[in-house]
Amino acid sequence: MKIMTVDLEEWFHTPFFKGKKERYYTHTVVEQLLDLFQESNVKSTFFIVTELVKKNPEILKKIAEAGHEIAFHSYDHELLFQKHPKQFLKEASYSKKLFEDISGKQVLGHRAPCWSYRAKNKWVPKALKKAGFKYDNSIHSIALRHKYDYGKPYYEDDVLFIPMPVFDAKFLNIPPGGIVFFRFLPLRISEFMFNQAEKDYGYAVFYIHPWELYTPPIDLSSIQKTIKYYNFSFRKDTMLKFKYLINKYEFFSIEEFIRSTEK
Ligand SMILES: [Zn+2]
Fold it and tell me: Which residues form the NodB homology domain (predicted)?
């Protein structure tokens, strides 16, 4: 099964722009993204940063009304391993209730910012359970092979951990469903790796950010070259490649994936 996920965050939530809390624009492009999904019949999980909802609560409503899954992507996009466990629990519980009150839907899932969950953060499964979450999708083994080979979904403290499937490139685990690999590699290679990961794991997870598809309202020429290249290059190509994939394949939300495994 192919799974679609969106990290709904602002361009300034990426680590390179830390602290620049200005020019929220995601709320102005959400509808375009929802239209795109509707045209291609995609059901997605939206991992949402709470700050965006506080600023524009109606985006959450629109996403839920379009039939997508609402999930939690931290309060302010600070890395999970930099959060104090008590602070995390407070923010996760608060956000879950806020998202549920606005959307009228149950919120089951969590994804840490920038895949910042580490096995040594032993407090995380318990905190997720306490806050009422049923699954986590934060494990991303973009690392040397075997070092972080988490393999298939597993339970810890009654929370289902769903790692990101990887393409086994012999010396490197490549998560083919998004960001750098999808934007920088030729489409056919990404597509092949994505399909292979799906064959090996039984599922593959695609992930995209609004700022990868829609130009943020900032002066890109003032941004340092390498950062600009890493974050904002190939947006037009990314959109074309993205459209190709969602038109060719069927995509489901994580909630739908979990339900399909329970049958
Ligand atoms: Zn993020």
Answer: 9-263
Q: For residue 30, give its domain range.
A: 2-262
* Structural tokens at position 113: 């910012």
Q: Cα(38) to centroid of ligand 1, in Å? A: 23
Residues 232 and 183: their CA atoms lie apart, in Å, by: 10
Pairing, β 204-208 against β 167-168? unpaired
Separation of CA 136 and ligand 1 centre (Å):
14
pTM of the predicted structure, to 2 decimals: 0.92
Given the structure tokens 């519980």, which residue do they identify?
Answer: 93
Residues 6+ apart with CB under 8 A from 139: 115, 117, 148, 150, 161, 162, 163, 164
Domain count, the chain: 1
How far apart, in whole angstroms, are the C-alpha atoms of residue 31 and residue 27? 8
Pairwise CA distance, residues 207 & 197, whole Å: 14
The CA 227 to ligand 1 mean position distance, Å, reads 16
Q: How far is the CA of 213 from the centre of ligand 1 (A)?
A: 15
CB atoms within 10 A of CB 17: 18
Amino acid at 164: M
Distance 263 CA to ligand 1 centre (A): 31
Separation CA 214–CA 8 (nearest Å): 12
Ligand 1 center from residue 51 Cα (angstroms):
12
Residue 52 sits in a domain whose CATH number is 3.20.20.370
User: Mean pLDDT, consecutive 10-residue segments, the chain of 263 residues?
Assistant: 95 73 83 96 97 95 97 94 95 98 97 85 94 94 53 89 85 77 86 92 92 80 74 78 95 97 84
Measured in angstroms, how far is the CA atom of residue 193 from the centroid of ligand 1?
22
Q: Which amino acid is at 97?
A: K
